[in-house]
Amino acid sequence: MISTLRSLWLNINASYWFYPGLFSVIAALAAIGTVWLDRNGFAEWLNNVAWIQPSRPEGARTVLTVIAGSMIATAATVFSITIAAVAYASGTYGPRLLTNFMYDKGNQLSLGVFIATFVYALMVLRVVRSEDERAPSEMDAVATALPGFTPQLSLLVATSLALFAVAVLVYFLHHIPDSIRINTVLKGIGRRLIEDIRERFPDNGGSDEPNAQKSGEAVTGIDAGYIKIIDFEALNEIAESHGACIALKVRTGDFVHCRSPLVEVSGTEMAERLGSDIRAAFSIGGMRTPTQDLEFLFDELVEIALRALSPGINDPFTALTSLHWLAAATAELGDRDLDRGPEQENYDRARIQPLEDDYAHFLERGFGGIRASAAGSVIASLKFLDSLHSAALGANSPHRLGLLRQEAERLIEQARTVPDSLLSGVSVCSDLSCPLPCWPLPPRSPRRRRKIPISGSRRSRASARSPRSSNGMRGPRPSWPGRPISNNAASVPSRCSPTTIRSRCPIRSRAITSPISGSTAIIRAGSGASRRARPISPAIPDGAC
Q1: Is the bond preceding residue 437 a cis peptide, omega within 30 degrees?
Q2: Residue among 299, 34, 108 nearest 189 (CA)
Q3: What CA dihedral angle connects 93, 94, 95 and 97, to 10 degrees?
Q4: For position 461, what pLDDT does the model report?
Q5: Do residues 379 and 311 make contact, with C-beta atoms less than 8 angstroms apart?
Q6: Is 523 helix (H, G, I), strand (E, B) or coil?
Q7: Whole-number pLDDT of residue 306
Q8: Is the pLDDT confidence value at 511 over 60?
Q9: How far apart are the first and last CA of the chain?
């Protein structure tokens, strides 16, 4: 029951109707209250304030009509802009990010302020009485000294709400373009991921991994969908009342169906009532949410990076930003005890055993999801290795350092699978005498016959030609700054282990030292004869990790 209510509250928070509806009810009640104060003479003191000019009925109607009409038009425009921004962001960065924009309180509160101002002005407008109109009651007739009925306090509140709505509109016009910037989106995801890691694994300075689970009789699901909320407190009460141990076989965010095992129960006999109570502790819906689900935030960072590295978009710098936040989150996990599950304060770890989420699991969920795409880009491959080195700064155990080194070695192995047609003359060599830096040579244009004056000797004709350079091309070698010759992983050196790669040995090269293992290699680009790179011994022996 609690999980269902929490799931309902999550759906309410991710809606565009809750705050506008709530603010509309508050505005209607506020209008009734201020009109009652005007009718009972509590607002007569406003007539004695010098800088507040009392309004006549016709003027009050005009002001309230303008406020109501402008606010409903502004609300419609704001809603249209919000939908356009959400559609752009979800189509560009990924449909999973739609949840983040739906949770954005800036958009919800802005829309609620405009709708509430409209409702308040409309409720006050209906009680304004002209001078020639008859009062509906004796109290209404003596409410003000002026003829007719003009709710001065209500009109003042409506004007103040209109001015506040203008300020909210200015904020909204700044908030929308700022919220759909990719750096802002990644910052929001990354910071929430780090905060959730600190909340879920509060013990800092440790390296404990989850313990093995107990096996038992399985309890399957009754519905298909994604697990949104798991009520650990309810499961703990069930386990204590039956003297059982419940080992979860799914985590929040997993997709289940009627045949999927939810938990395994040991220490007691299985009964139909026990299975029903356990199933009631799981809330299942049609989409994933970041509540209790660290993997969801990891997947969002991975999705943005994969889209950026796809051939259709080809934006490696967005992928670099995703790698930066992944490195920060992985470094935060590196020195924490991971033997705790979600909401660890609400259940006994001996009775409720969450699914194992060790360091290798989170590393594979983050860097492992980007590895294949990063292997096809020079920029992303180098930053991938740098991010692993950055994450290694937070690891405090040889086991976790070994996992980071293994991830770097997998990237090198993935780079070896790049087809030769995509290599474009990029290779890894061990000759440290190669010149620097690694810039591609300009394409050689076809030779054209030059017109040489008839007069002159054969020597003068030869001198008219440009001398051959060291690379066999005529003319001096031009300066060619720009990007490396190809965005493929073959240019990534073996930065974590000795490597031998056969490919084209170029003319120009660059030396790179691995920040993880200390091994040095050369990236060479160009055309030339086929050579074999010599293995390079790492500066840190394998036993050190």
Answers
A1: yes
A2: 299
A3: -60
A4: 45
A5: no
A6: strand
A7: 93
A8: no
A9: 48
Q: Cα(264)–Cα(219) distance, rounded to whole angstroms? A: 6
Q: Which DSSP string corresponds to 466-503?
A: PPB-TTS-BSPPPP--SS-S--SGGG---SSS----EE
Distance of alpha carbon 104 from alpha carbon 16, whole angstroms? 10
Closest by alpha carbon to 437, among 485, 495, 502? 485
Rounded to the nearest 10 degrees, the angle between the axes of helix 232-242 and helix 2-13 is 180
C-alpha to C-alpha distance for 234 and 237, rounded to whole angstroms: 5
How many CB atoms neighbour CB 138 within 10 A? 8
Residue 412 to residue 204: CA distance in whole angstroms: 32
Of 48-52, 252-256, 513-517, the one with minimum mean pLDDT is 513-517
DSSP element (H, E) containing 287: none
- Read off the pLDDT of residues 437-484 as tens digits, 9 standing for 90 and up: 333 434 444 555 445 454 444 444 444 444 444 444 444 444 434 434
Question: Among 498, 502, 510, 491, which Cα is nearest to 529's?
Answer: 502
β-strand pairing of 352-353 with 245-248: parallel
Span 504-530, average pLDDT? 42
Model confidence, pTM: 0.68
Mean pLDDT over the full length of the chain: 76
Residue 220: CB partners within 8 Å, gap ≥ 6? 258, 259, 260, 261, 262
Whether the Cβ atoms of residue 491 and residue 523 lie closer than 8 Å to each other: yes
Distance CA(235)–CA(478), nearest Å, equals 72
Q: What is the DSSP string of 67-96?
A: HHHHHHHHHHHHHHHHHHHHHHHHHHH-GG
- The answer to whether the Cα torsion of 197, 199, 203, 205 is positive or negative is positive
Which residues, including other chains, have CB under 8 Å from residue 31's CB and lie 6 or more apart? 119, 120, 123, 124, 154
481 vs 48: CA distance, rounded Å: 76
